[in-house]
Design the sequence.
């Protein structure tokens, strides 16, 4: 039985998409839950969802709302679409305070597990998205018309049985784009350089410049008319790597989104994709990231792969130890890794089943818990 909606929480569905929340682009986790009561009449709503992109949009939002905000209104800032090393609790509070001259009742929704400040609402957007698209696809939710998955179809996200071919030991899906001085881009460049230098014949390395692109299921280089078919050199999209690449490899070697600092706890589809597809993972990230994913999601990792680099606070030393772990794993024969994979089938299946067995973290529920 679905619980009744919590009282006085009608949410504003702005009909002209002028406030930054593009329906249906950004509204998936409102649309997925019928407990939200939507209204296009701002006078009747209690919650006004907004997205902060930059100060230019902020000025526009304030201009639109200045004569419409009433005492009962609360602003709900949906700020869980992006993450970076500097998305600390203090950063989110600075964003929230930008809106408090409209109303003091401003709540910000985010995906940094370490942030528990007042009026800050943690929402596990990444896990929810993975579970929905890969295990619970619903045609009526227009999942092909949402931000970061434009033009997608169910085949791209469908989880199939994958039979290993034992062609290669690893894949390295390290997309390099944008500002190359960002910490995660530096480590991706470093990983790819290391792998090209020492292990290039033993795995698949993403390199759009050389034409080495990991395409999603049902898409290849002959289909170049949509963003779906160009997942190699740009960010901001999510089209999981196709099954054929997982069939040919046992291990995913990659950099997560957050690689420095101690104020953000987070993992993304970069980790969830290989787990649900049945690969071992060997990720580089911030100090403590491995322990975080094991604790929060009960992810199980094999004992023959060295993850102790996760405990090193110095970023440079942690990366050096990480590359040492990569070299140790890839120093084994492919027959050895194949046998380990067979021996670890229970671990592989447990991690895959996480996305089927773990419940959604409903946006409605976390808002209900924190909004007063």
Sequence:
């Amino acid at each position: 039985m679905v619980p009744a909606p919590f009282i006085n929480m009608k949410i504003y569905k702005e009909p002209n998409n002028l406030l930054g929340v593009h329906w249906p682009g950004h509204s998936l986790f409102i649309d997925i839950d019928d407990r939200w009561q939507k209204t296009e009449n701002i006078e009747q709503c209690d919650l006004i969802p907004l997205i902060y992109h930059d100060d230019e949009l902020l000025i526009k939002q304030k201009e639109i709302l200045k004569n419409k905000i009433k005492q009962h209104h609360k602003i709900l800032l949906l700020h869980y679409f992006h993450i970076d090393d500097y998305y600390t609790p203090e950063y989110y509070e600075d964003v929230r305070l930008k809106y408090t001259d409209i109303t003091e009742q401003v709540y910000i929704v985010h995906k940094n597990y370490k942030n528990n400040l007042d009026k800050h609402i943690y929402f596990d957007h990444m896990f929810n998205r993975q579970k929905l698209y890969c295990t619970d696809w619903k045609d009526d939710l227009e999942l092909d018309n949402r931000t970061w998955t434009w033009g997608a179809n169910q085949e791209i996200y469908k989880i199939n049985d994958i039979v290993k071919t034992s062609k290669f030991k690893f894949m390295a899906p390290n997309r390099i784009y944008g500002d190359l001085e960002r910490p995660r881009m530096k480590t991706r460049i470093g990983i790819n350089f290391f792998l090209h230098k020492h292990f290039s014949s033993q795995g698949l390395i993403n390199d759009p410049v050389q034409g080495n692109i990991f395409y999603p299921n049902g898409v290849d280089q002959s289909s170049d008319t949509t963003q779906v078919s160009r997942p190699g050199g740009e960010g901001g999209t999510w089209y999981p790597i196709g099954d054929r690449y997982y069939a040919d490899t046992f291990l995913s070697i990659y950099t997560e989104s957050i690689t420095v600092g101690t104020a953000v706890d987070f993992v993304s589809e970069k980790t969830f994709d290989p787990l649900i597809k049945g690969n071992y993972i060997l990720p580089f990230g911030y100090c403590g990231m491995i322990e975080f994913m094991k604790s929060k999601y009960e992810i199980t990792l094999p004992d023959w792969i060295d993850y102790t680099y996760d405990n090193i606070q110095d970023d440079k030393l942690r990366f050096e130890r990480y590359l040492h772990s990569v070299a140790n794993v890839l120093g084994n024969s492919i027959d050895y890794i194949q046998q380990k994979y067979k021996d670890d089938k229970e671990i592989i299946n447990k991690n895959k089943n996480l996305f089927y067995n773990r419940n959604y973290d409903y946006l409605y529920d976390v808002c209900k818990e924190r909004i007063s």
About this structure: Confidence is low (pLDDT under 50) at residues 224-232.
